[in-house]
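During the reporting period the student researcher (J.K.) took over the structure-prediction task from the postdoctoral fellow and processed the backlog of single-chain submissions. One of the processed entries is reproduced below for the supervisory committee.
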Amino acid sequence: MATYEEVMVQELQVWQRKMLRKPGIFNRLSKSVQDRINNLIPEKVHQAITVIIKQMIRGVLFGAKWTTRDKNQVLSLEKSDNIVAEKIRIYRNTAAAEGALTGAGGLWLGMADFPLLITIKIKLLFEIAAIYGFSVTDYKERVYILHIFQLAFSSAKHRRNVFLTMKDWDEKSKDLPEDINQFEWRPFQQEYRDYIDLAKMAQLIPVIGAPVGAVVNYRLIRKLGFTAKMAYHMRWADRRGL
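J.K. obtained the following structure tokens:
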């Protein structure tokens, strides 16, 4: 019978192949349509959205750093996964409740879901990083968290590029600039916005906003949690030469 680690390595290999898969016809068409829409939006609007998301993410990143404890005890992969699964369940249910509440509140309360959901997502990623034994006080680990965020919420083409950047992170991170302002914020905000726009727009519609908000947030957190788990499994496997 295969050990837990062997089963996880097999699961990781399947996930890695999925991350490297080239965009299909539907993905390319969807991305093409979204790019055309983005081209119609004035550059000043893009710049304003980039600044807003940049400041929002920076605030959450540095705030969560002080509210997340680094894990002192090194656990086995299986025990860490079990704790992570419980964290994902808690955050998933919290996000679903938040989505239902803001979705039921009409347009203006629905708009408040955007920053609230980002806060929940980033805090979950900090929790998961700490559980797997990575220090969230380390600037380079916070950049890795941003890469996980992109990996979960990007087009197939951009996702592939992000994944390749994350491979062998311990080595590649040595060349990172020490200033988070040099992070590529424009593609980050645009890919994220393009990914969730369609689903979240329905949340603003009266009557159906609450159930849509709950379901969408539930699924987004579930996907983010699984992506983070696989991303840290990749770090675990890289360090063991697997």
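The committee noted the following: The first helix runs from residue 4 to 20.
J.K. will present the remaining backlog at the next meeting.
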